[in-house]
Amino acid sequence: MEAGGERHFIYSLPLQSDRWYVGITCSPPARLAEHRRGEGAEWTRLYPPTSGFARVKLASGDKVQARIEEDAEVKRLMRLHDDVMRILTIKVDAHSEGPSVQMQKRDDRGDRRERR
């Protein structure tokens, strides 16, 4: 901890448009309230917080260590987002004509076996 005994917290705040804000504060309740009132960082004014809960954890050292842990949290969220996008995104060589399998009525799917 720094001289004066200040503890630093790292917080992750879910925002609109599937965005996140990660920051450091000595007073999580006050800082989160600022973001929710639109008085926080520019990023949280562009993309206001959702009604989801913020993730808050105590940093393990001084402000320098808190910045390192903040960076690790940003990278963690980026990996999570990247993993989700990798799962949801597939590459195809060509698209078939007509509606996709998901958009077809069950009656139109003649190539499927009977359900039991």
Write the layout of secondary structure elements.
Blueprint: E1 9-15, E2 19-25, H1 28-36, H2 42-46, E3 55-58, H3 63-88
Antiparallel strand pairs: 1-2, 1-3
Description:
There is one protein chain. The chain has helices at residues 28-36, 42-46, 63-88; strands at 9-15, 19-25, 55-58. It is α+β, with helices and mostly antiparallel strands and 116 residues long. It has a domain at 9-85. A three-stranded antiparallel β-sheet has the order 2-1-3. The protein starts with 8 loop residues before the first strand and ends in a 28-residue tail after the last helix. The mean pLDDT is 79.
Please describe the structure with a list of short key phrases separated by commas or semicolons:
three-stranded antiparallel beta sheet, single chain, alpha+beta
Summarize the structure.
The chain is an alpha+beta fold and 116 residues long.
Low-confidence stretches: none
Helix content: 25-40%
Largest sheet: 3 strands, antiparallel
- Based on CA atoms alone, the radius of gyration comes out at 22 Å
Q: What percent strand? A: 15-25%
Oligomeric state of shown chains: single chain
Tell me, what's the shape?
Answer: elongated
Structural class by sheet pairing and helices: alpha+beta
**Number of helix segments?**
3
Overall pLDDT score: 79
Q: State the distance separating the first and last CA atoms.
A: 64 Å
Give the strand line-up of the largest sheet: 2-1-3
Sketch the topology as an H/E string, one letter per element. EEHHEH
Number of strands: 3
